[in-house]
Write a structure and sequence with these properties.
heterotetramer; A alpha+beta; B mainly alpha; C mainly alpha; D alpha/beta; A: alpha+beta; D-Maltodextrin-Binding Protein, domain 2; Dipeptide-binding Protein, domain 1; Dipeptide-binding Protein, domain 3; seven-stranded mixed sheet; six-stranded mixed sheet; 31% helix; globular; B: mainly alpha
Chain lengths: 522, 338, 310, 328
């Protein structure tokens, strides 16, 4: 009797735990998809983190971009080797003389993955959801991409008109971005409460199949694609957080392509017979002085400190030759970049003398502890390296390092002499970089730099149509920035990817995306 | 007994409320503002304020807690700030991975720990005993993440024997029924997938199991040494029972009783160890996810996860107590008070 | 410890004969037995050595002298990732800092965090446990429920959350690690107090009219002090491991402090280029933890009358 | 002769030296006989029984001598061979009924294990026999009690269970090591009575180990008195009680409280304590506690000598003084 009761009790407890656990496991969600993918026609791309989501309006991260570029098309797209825009879902477009009205002529016969038609209404739907009053605060790129849009008019099924409130030269570049700009199936948005993070439906070369959280996302080729159809039948995006583990995965054949590697593993990869893909990066890694208060409200002292740091040497050892030393804020391939722009050059003696004269002996530095796309070595290592240089010119540095979230708050609080930051270009337009120094928000303009002349030039640059005149404006801006030394530009991180030798036509666009439609595996 | 279980389940409630209060305080009062992370590099002060308002972060803390707890009672733990997905969905899509890892690890730890402990006790002071106990000592002294990396370097990076990350080759991934790939692949009858999932488990489970194995081995040894000195062991020998049977049926059966408690406690510490192991092995479980969410100040997720872990933890402790009573007929929970 | 009178067997007598002399105090008794435990002596020796290193490094830092081979925080970007050689025995790290000097320097941080964190959890835990065990009733129920709550959250998660909230820093790591292990001590102390409380001498002290606090400190705590010493020794090793884990996750001390877990966390990106940056800090952590474990085990054996008869 | 122990020496090797717990003892037990070994704690009586059973645990070991059971030397047998004898031909009851039964096994399983180890019978038959044995040792409603766990029984009941277990294979020799020590006085008598009955029923020999002379007088046929690992006196029960020879035996007998003693005299106590086994006095081990100690006693160990079938180890009874024996 007693034994039976005990057994019942045990069974009950086991069952309780069991029920909890099974209740916790996902119910059968998707129909177990037809045939399992085969290795030979499947591309496995390993990236360092899981995408935030796959709704272009709701995400802001590079990891999401890599997947979304394969699922969606925008009205425009970037040229393969530059940030110039090319037709995509829009066959052609016209801009009115006042620069306020853009008319787009759309591709015909394009269908979304859910079978609905792509047309002018769909374009309007997608833009409208990111304009007031529908836009929400967490649509990270809505104001950036569509901030200048007044309204959208459907002319006919295949023509759409976008009216701006003020002329904006970067607007076309913005429409080629993978954030905000891609066109999502309106039906899918309506069916999913205006959030297709988990169920993306686009017009792109690949269709979404499934997403195992923190593991992988599986895509399958869209055989009804309106453009050039993809080569490989399946694409799997795998998430491997640890950099070394990602390299091991490539070398062990668990992945065909990996990204987010740093220079130190290149030899390991090439020794295993794999290939490296190196591309210039559209980003800037910099150190900023707090120009709003003593001691660095003095441009001379800023220059002296910058002089004490041997940037080329630092970049070489910290990034092992896989970051370019920055000579300006703008990446070298960008419109407006000019070779003549240079920063102060390394001169420890001059620096020491100037610093001694100023009486500066210690500074307070804050930095971040996470690796960032523009700084694979993380902010702490960078800060420590600079601490080393400054100790040689008689300046003691106190470093406070914080996790990224906390760091952002510390920046806002503004209690620092020197801080570290970086910027990832969004649309390939020079304004996208230079406007940071004109920004009022301290979490953008961490140097708290204020220069009326500079701000005026920025405003002028936005309105000026693309061309030599516009480029000259940005060159001038770069020169002002270099002379004022509010920032010490350190490096432009290059994109470093690796792939198996049997992968062909792999490329990583400078805007941080990896269109895989043209990639094949043999 | 049933009454006791019922009572214990009732006692879950104050514990869970306590847990929710602690987490709420740490996250909402002291942690950094999630807005900059959620809103990305273009976030302006204004956008941050609008977003905070919309998500109730500017409400008084009591009101926020009230919203949270009333939601939790109806099974709604809120939406992740970062991914805008329901917290429950985010958690449960990762939970099976952690459970699978922890269960395999605790099995490894128990089997090898008990084996080493028993042999060490029986052959006390022999070479095996000394080697086993040295291993156990080093096992509790090594940082688990360091061990994990060493395993990766050696077995994945150098020998290329075992995968270093992930749960399974995505091409073999079975349809999700339970979320446990070992079980799912068996249901699907896919032995390749089963083998592959097992191969992926070897390194992380070993790294995770090491500490617990060492603890269990040491505990088993001392428990067995004590048991082997008991009078009833002498009685059993006096009956002419073979030595092997004396050890298995008499000594181990009794010595196991305290070990069960240790194993139960270890399951709790495994959930903690999973945080580090999952990070090192890119294991798609709840541990590394929670750390990421803590660092992103994704409050709703952290609240949900910790609540869930505490729930499981208390439940496992209850299970251990019940098993304890099952193993030891002398235990009765009728009058026990706490 | 009084031998069970009823066990009459000859073996017990022979064993008892080995311990004819009875040391006066529990701690002294522990020390006597500890001395005979080789492993514990080794542990104690290693700890003494590490403490010496830490003190020497710390002392010379105060005096502004350099006793380490190199300045542990001096970075020279031209010397990044030099493999171990005669000049740099343990090689250099990414920023060209000497690994040997950094590891030696790190001793003081690990020891400090370990001891300080245990001091926090010990003092608070003992106090809470003593109050709970001695007062009983609602106070007990409340304190122990709170402890239950803390115990049901994995301590490393709790520590991570604390660190994320408080920010990086030596002091904060000490607090975070100290706070999360309070319940262990509270539980032990409460349990022992409950069992000691009914003893005659405590009852007697109560009858005479001693104050509660006096009874706790004069009569009860001395009787469980050895138990606490054992727990605290083992607690230091846990605290050192937790510190390393926090450092590994990038939540440890502020730069440029050399903390072993932090060094491991950074080395993780270079496991193929510079595996030595991963090996040495790991070994250092293992050694210090091992030493405290050896000592703790020895103390426990010394405390436990059953296991000391070997 | 069922069991003959010859020159048995059992040692415990400890860090601080070797303790000779059993020092060169010899005795015999005949079929059906009850032999009692009496002595204080540490006298080596329990070690003797464990030596016979081959159950000595480290650091104890048999250093020499013979233990022949039915003319086989148990000391030379392998553990395997011994296992066949233990619980079958020789079985044992221990002093601690509270701890000698496995707490997590039902008592029927514990008895059945003994039966099934030695007899080739089915589980069902073994169970039947178990219940029969429980009945024999006087456990009421044995079929139900068989399902109990040890903690559900009283000490006396447990000792009955131990007895039932020990007798379940009808051994020829039963070693009872302090079977009554841990029990209440009333229960003690019951258990002794039970042993006596069982001896009659199964015609087995019993080696009764005890420190309680009262028990000896009630149950034994012959008595051996041990002190510090040596036999100091051996005699049949009648002559030992009527005419104890060794001063130690005399002391032991005097220290038994007598209910009918009307004098106010305090109970006699042997002075001093059992010596530390690592630090034995030279000469006779009892010399430092002996009221009749002579100088010679502190220098040499007396031999065990036989006087009219009564063996004693004491210089008081050197052959030269044989004549005075009766006078005393």
């Amino acid at each position: 009797m007693k034994k039976i009761r005990r057994i019942v009790a045990l069974a009950l407890a086991v069952a309780l735990v069991g029920v909890t656990l099974t209740a916790c496991s996902p119910k059968k969600e998707e129909s177990s998809t037809s045939a399992a993918p085969k290795a030979s026609d499947t591309l496995i791309y390993a990236q360092g983190a899981e995408p935030r989501g796959l709704d272009p309006a709701l995400v802001d991260d590079g990891e999401s971009a890599k997947v979304m570029i394969n699922i969606y098309d925008g009205l425009l797209k970037y040229n393969k080797d530059s940030t110039k825009v090319e037709p995509s879902l829009a066959k052609s477009w016209e801009v009115s003389a006042d620069g306020l009205t853009y008319t787009f002529h759309l591709q015909e016969g394009v269908k979304f993955h859910d079978g609905t038609d792509f047309d002018a209404e769909a374009v309007k739907f997608n833009i409208d959801r990111q304009l007031p009053p529908q836009v929400t605060a967490d649509m990270a790129y809505a104001s950036f991409v569509y901030g200048s849009v007044k309204d959208v008019q459907v002319v006919d099924k295949k023509t759409v008109k976008v009216n701006l409130t003020a002329p904006s030269t970067p607007f076309l570049s913005n429409l080629a971005m993978v954030m905000s700009a891609p066109i999502v199936s309106p039906k899918a948005l309506k069916d999913n409460k205006n959030n297709v993070n988990q169920v993306p439906v686009g017009t792109g070369p690949y269709k979404f199949v499934k997403w195992a959280k923190d593991e992988n996302i599986v895509l399958v080729r869209n055989d009804e694609y309106w453009g050039t159809k993809a080569i490989a039948k399946n694409v799997i995006f795998k998430f491997i957080k640890d950099n070394s583990a990602r390299v091991v995965a490539l070398n062990n054949g668990e992945a065909d392509m990996i990204d987010g590697i740093d220079a130190t593993v290149v030899k390991q990869i090439t020794d295993a017979g794999n290939k490296i893909f190196q591309a210039p990066g559209m980003n800037i890694n910099y150190m900023a002085y707090n120009t709003s208060r003593k001691p660095f409200n003095d441009a001379k002292l800023r220059t002296a400190i910058s002089q004490a740091i041997n940037v080329p040497e630092l970049v070489k050892s910290l990034y092992q030759g896989y970051s370019e030393t920055a000579t300006s804020i703008l990446p070298t391939f960008m419109e407006g970049y000019d070779k003549s722009v240079t920063q102060v050059s390394y001169n420890a003696e001059a620096a020491a003398a100037a610093i001694k004269a100023s009486g500066l002996t210690s500074v307070h530095m804050i930095t971040y502890t996470n690796p960032r796309p523009y700084n694979s070595a993380n902010g702490q290592a960078l800060a420590e390296a600079i601490q080393g240089y400054l100790s040689k010119v008689g300046v003691t540095v106190k470093i406070d390092a914080f996790d990224w979230t906390t760091y952002k708050q510390k920046l806002k609080a503004g209690d620092y002499d020197i801080a570290f930051y970086g910027w990832i270009g969004d649309n390939g337009d020079p304004d996208n970089f230079m406007y940071l120094l004109a920004h009022e928000d301290p979490s953008m303009n961490i140097a708290l730099y204020k220069n009326a002349e500079f701000n005026k030039l920025i405003a002028k640059g936005v309105e000026t149509p693309a061309g030599p005149a516009r480029n000259a404006i940005y060159t001038q801006l770069e020169k002002i920035a270099a002379a004022d030394a509010a920032w010490l530009p350190i490096s432009h991180a290059q994109t470093l990817c690796a792939y198996k030798p049997n992968i062909h036509n792999f490329y990583f666009h400078m805007t941080g995306i990896t269109p895989l439609a043209g990639v094949s595996k043999q | 007994m049933l009454k006791y279980i019922f009572k214990r389940i009732l006692m879950l409630i104050p514990v869970l409320i306590g847990v929710s209060i602690i987490v709420f305080l740490i996250m909402r009062v002291f942690s950094p503002d999630p807005a900059p992370i959620v809103l990305g590099q273009h976030a302006t002060q204004t956008a941050v304020e609008v977003w905070r308002q919309a998500n109730g972060l500017n409400d008084p803390i009591f009101l926020q807690y009230y919203h949270f707890i009333t939601g939790a009672l109806t099974g709604d733990l809120g939406t992740s700030f970062y991914t805008k997905m329901p917290v429950l969905k985010e958690i449960f899509s990762r939970f099976p991975a952690t459970i699978e890892l922890a269960v395999v690890a605790i099995m490894l730890a128990s089997i090898f720990g008990i084996l080493i402990g028993v042999v060490s006790a029986v052959k006390k002071n022999s070479i095996f005993d000394n080697a086993g106990m040295l291993l156990a000592l080093v096992g509790v002294s090594m940082p688990i993440f360091w061990l994990g990396i060493l395993l990766i370097i050696f077995f994945s990076g150098t020998l290329h024997w075992l995968p270093s990350s992930g749960r399974i080759n995505p091409m073999l991934q079975p349809g999700s029924v339970t979320g446990f790939y070992l079980i799912d692949s068996l249901i699907a009858g896919n032995m390749d997938a089963f083998g592959d999932a097992l191969r992926h488990l070897v390194l992380p489970a070993s790294a995770l199991a090491m500490y617990s194995m060492a603890i269990i081995a040491r505990m088993t040894r001392s428990s067995m040494l004590e048991t082997l000195q008991q009078d009833y062991i002498r009685t059993a020998r006096a009956k002419g029972v073979s030595e092997g049977r004396v050890i298995r049926k008499h000594a181990l059966r009794n010595g196991l009783i305290p070990i069960v408690t240790v194993i139960g406690l270890q399951l709790g510490s495994l959930l903690g160890g999973a945080v580090l192991t999952e990070t090192v092995f890119s294991w798609p479980g709840i541990g590394s996810y929670t750390v990421a969410c803590i660092l992103k100040s994704d409050f709703p997720v952290v609240q949900g996860v910790v609540l869930l872990i505490a729930f499981v933890f208390v439940l496992v402790n209850l299970l251990v107590d019940v098993i304890y009573a099952f193993l030891d007929p002398r235990i009765k929970y009728s009058k026990k008070e706490g | 410890m009084v031998k069970d009178v009823s066990s009459n067997s000859d073996e017990n007598l022979i064993q008892a004969a080995e311990y004819v002399e009875k040391p006066e105090s529990q701690l002294k008794e522990m020390w006597e037995t500890l001395k005979q435990n080789k492993a514990a002596v080794v542990g104690l020796f290693i700890i003494a050595l590490l403490a010496l290193i830490a003190l020497a490094v710390w002392g010379s830092e105060l005096l502004g002298k350099q006793i380490l081979p190199y300045d542990p925080n001096y970075s020279d970007m031209t010397k990044s990732f030099i493999w171990p050689n005669a000049e740099h025995w343990f090689g250099t790290d990414q920023l060209g800092r000497d690994m040997l000097s950094r590891i030696l320097d790190g001793t003081k941080i690990s020891l400090f965090v370990g001891v300080a964190a245990v001091a926090i959890s010990l003092s608070i835990g003992v106090m809470l446990g003593a109050i709970a065990g001695y007062r009983g009733g609602k106070t007990d129920a409340f304190i122990m429920r709170v402890m239950d709550v803390m115990l049901s959250i994995p301590s490393i998660l709790l520590a991570i959350a604390f660190m994320a909230a408080l920010g990086k820093g030596l002091d904060k790591a000490v607090i975070a690690i100290g706070l999360v292990s309070i319940p262990e001590y509270a539980r032990i102390v409460r349990g022992s107090i409950l069992s000691v409380k009914e003893n005659d001498y405590v009852q007697a002290a109560k009858v005479i009219g001693n104050k509660d606090s006096r009874i706790i400190f004069k009569h009860i705590l001395p009787n469980i002090i050895s138990l606490i010493v054992v727990r605290a020794t083992l607690g230091i090793s846990t605290a050192v491991l937790d510190t390393a884990a926090l450092g590994f996750l990038g939540l440890g001390v502020q730069p440029p402090y050399a903390e072993w877990g932090d060094m491991l966390g950074r080395a993780r990106g270079f496991i193929f280029t510079a595996p030595y940056t991963l090996i040495f800090p790991g070994i250092a952590i293992t050694i210090i933890v091992l030493a405290f474990n050896l000592l703790g085990d020895g103390l426990r054996d010394a405390l436990d009358p059953k296991s000391r008869i070997k | 002769m069922l069991l003959e122990v010859k020159n048995l020496r059992t040692e415990f090797k400890l860090k601080r030296g070797t303790v000779r717990a059993v020092d060169d003892i010899s005795f015999t037990i005949d079929k059906g006989e009850i032999l009692a070994i009496v002595g204080e704690s540490g006298s080596g009586k329990s070690v003797t029984s464990l030596s016979i059973m081959g159950l000595l645990q480290k650091p104890g070991r048999i250093a020499g001598g013979e233990i022949s059971f039915k003319s086989q030397d148990l000391n030379k047998m392998s553990q395997k061979e011994l296992q066949k004898i233990r619980g079958n031909q020789i079985s044992m009851i221990f002093q601690e009924p509270m701890t000698s039964l496995n707490p997590v096994w039902r008592i029927k399983d514990q008895i059945m294990e003994n039966i099934m180890t030695h007899m080739k019978i089915s589980k069902k038959e073994a169970l039947a026999r178990t219940i029969e044995m429980l009945d024999t040792v006087g456990i009421p409603s044995p079929a139900e009690r068989a399902n109990d766990y040890p903690h559900q029984m009283s000490g006396g009941m447990r000792q009955r269970v131990m007895t039932a277990m020990a007798l379940s294979c009808e051994p020829e020799l039963l070693i009872a090591d302090e079977p009554t020590t841990a029990l209440d006085v009333t229960i003690q008598a019951q258990i002794l009575e039970l042993l006596y009955q069982m001896r009659e029923k199964f015609h087995m020999a019993v080696l009764l180990i005890t420190h309680d002379l009262g028990v000896v007088s009630e149950a034994a046929d012959r008595v051996i008195v041990m002190y510090c690992g040596k036999i100091v006196e051996e005699a049949d029960v009648k002559s030992l009680f009527s005419q104890p020879l060794h001063p130690y035996t005399v002391g032991l007998l005097q220290s038994i409280p007598q209910i009918d003693d009307e004098s106010d005299q305090r109970l006699y106590m042997i002075k001093g304590m059992v010596p530390n086994p690592l630090n034995m006095p030279p000469g006779c081990y009892f010399s430092d506690r002996c009221d009749s100690c002579m100088e010679r006693c502190t220098q040499e160990m007396p031999e065990l000598q036989e006087i009219n079938g009564h063996k004693v180890r004491c210089f008081l009874y050197d052959k030269a003084k044989e004549g005075e024996l009766s006078a005393k």
